[in-house]
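Whiteboard transcription, Tuesday session. T.W. wrote the structure tokens on the left side:
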């Protein structure tokens, strides 16, 4: 049998960090009890990009699949709960809106709630959309609860994710993975070895050792040591649509209550993030170097911290886009080696998770399975493009002053996003594709928040008279408000969860 179709027994992950250890933990768990071995090569000398990470609700599925207990997870990663993202100044200075996890109101008469809200707007009776969001009403009170109750309970409509320390999460997953038999090799890779047919056969370390394998996962970050340097998979650059190419990050002391949401504040040449962890707050400024120097970005960030800086500011440079083939030959890129989209909607960890989940579902028996590879690449492309379009939406619909904001407002955008915006503007409908990780309520929150109010709405919304509609909306609003007022403080829920031991 030729090498080009060998059975896969040895899986080698190159690079640690969040991506590497998420892949190691998930693959070791999936193949537990089989003859396959999973090993990971990383160097202590190479720093990982370990900032405070914000996530989307999909992370719950990843932890659940591995059987990770939430109390252990919160304790080990200094995590807090997250109900959504507040966007401050993204449409105009002084205006805010919230992208919640979980829907708005209750779906009525078999159609989405927002059509009845639009009807109320037309009848001159509407309250702001966010008053119908359980997540936002809890978040702005710094309160939190886990989803619970039947379909009529406002709390059943709640979704949540986490903020956590990415470096601590990587360490937590390393212990988990090693417990499942993953072998870690310390050392810097100096050479990627390839077989005659072009497949990766092994990686050579600085000390001369070669770690051989049948299937490789590239978690080497922006460098793309295997997928790009060795296999030349190619990169599709999206900076024409997402022109931020730099960031500076720094943690600081928290000043004030523990808020259960991420904040994104529009700035001169980009935006600033705020991610509250148990022990500190993660901050960063994502910006375009065309409009702002690194020094000015660093000064601006440091001058706007709520508490004392706890480390030196860390600079990051990146090119927005995606790898043309995330899976090439016998190598799959996971994490930053597969592409980069700015963390405006907290999708970085999700794109790692998504690649790992898809890989496990499509994992080949032999190294030469072109059909599975094509399927994987098509799914990853769709995922990246969907996230890209959702991010562009925030920028395109801004009404801010300044050269940077003028540029992103004027830029031409992808056709599929043009169609999506036009359909919503005309009819109030949001059409999602099969693999869209963002719920209808997510697209709605950003479109409305950025000032895009539809001209039309679903005709079924007219089955209610204006009075009936106003009555129903008021009842939903009151129920959400009363529920939010009765919830425990977020900090108390975090403390109670951490102190819980497995029964």
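and on the right, the sequence the group agreed on:
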């Amino acid at each position: 049998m030729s090498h080009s179709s060998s059975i896969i027994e040895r899986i080698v992950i190159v690079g640690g960090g969040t991506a590497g250890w998420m892949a190691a933990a998930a693959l070791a768990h999936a193949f537990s009890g089989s003859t396959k071995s999973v090993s990971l090569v990383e160097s202590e000398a190479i720093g990982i990009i370990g900032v405070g990470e914000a996530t989307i609700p999909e992370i719950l599925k990843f932890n659940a699949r591995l059987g990770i207990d939430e109390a252990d997870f919160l304790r080990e990663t200094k995590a807090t709960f997250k109900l959504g993202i507040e966007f401050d100044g993204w449409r105009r200075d002084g205006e805010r809106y919230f992208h919640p996890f979980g829907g708005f109101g209750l779906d009525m008469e078999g159609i989405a709630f927002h059509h009845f809200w639009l009807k109320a707007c037309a009848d001159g009776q509407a309250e702001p959309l966010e008053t119908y969001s359980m997540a936002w009403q809890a978040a702005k009170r710094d309160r939190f609860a886990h989803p619970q109750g039947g379909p009529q309970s406002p709390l059943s409509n709640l979704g949540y994710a986490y903020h956590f320390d990415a470096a601590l999460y990587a360490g937590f997953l390393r212990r988990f993975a090693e417990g499942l038999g993953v072998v870690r090799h310390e050392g810097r890779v100096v050479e990627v070895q390839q077989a005659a047919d072009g497949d990766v056969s092994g990686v050579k370390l600085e000390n001369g050792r070669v770690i051989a394998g049948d299937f490789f996962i590239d978690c080497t970050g922006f460098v793309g040591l295997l997928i790009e340097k060795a296999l030349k998979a190619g990169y599709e650059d999206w900076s024409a649509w997402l022109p931020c190419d730099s960031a500076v990050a720094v943690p600081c002391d928290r000043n004030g209550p523990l808020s259960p949401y991420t904040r994104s504040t529009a700035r001169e040449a980009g935006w600033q993030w705020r991610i509250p962890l148990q022990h500190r707050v993660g901050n960063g400024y994502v910006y375009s170097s065309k409009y702002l120097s690194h020094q000015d970005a660093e000064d601006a960030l440091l001058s706007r911290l709520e508490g004392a800086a706890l480390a030196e500011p860390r600079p990051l440079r990146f090119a927005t886009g995606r790898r043309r083939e995330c899976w090439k030959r016998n190598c799959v890129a996971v994490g930053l080696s597969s592409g980069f989209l700015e963390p405006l909607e907290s999708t970085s960890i999700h794109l790692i998770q998504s690649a790992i989940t898809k890989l496990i579902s499509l994992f080949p028996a032999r190294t030469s399975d072109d059909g599975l590879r094509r399927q994987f690449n098509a799914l990853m492309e769709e995922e990246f493009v969907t996230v890209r379009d959702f991010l562009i939406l925030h920028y395109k619909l801004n009404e801010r002053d300044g050269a940077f904001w003028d540029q992103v407002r004027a830029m031409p955008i992808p056709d599929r996003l043009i169609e999506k915006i036009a359909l919503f503007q005309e009819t109030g409908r949001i059409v999602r594709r099969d693999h869209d990780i963002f719920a209808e309520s997510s697209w709605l929150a950003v479109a409305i928040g950025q000032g895009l109010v539809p001209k039309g709405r679903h005709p079924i919304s007219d089955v209610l008279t204006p009075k009936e509609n106003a009555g129903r909306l008021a009842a939903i609003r009151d129920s959400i408000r009363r529920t939010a007022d009765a919830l425990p403080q977020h900090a108390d829920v975090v403390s109670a969860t951490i102190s819980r031991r497995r029964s």
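Someone added at the bottom: The chain has a mean pLDDT of 94.
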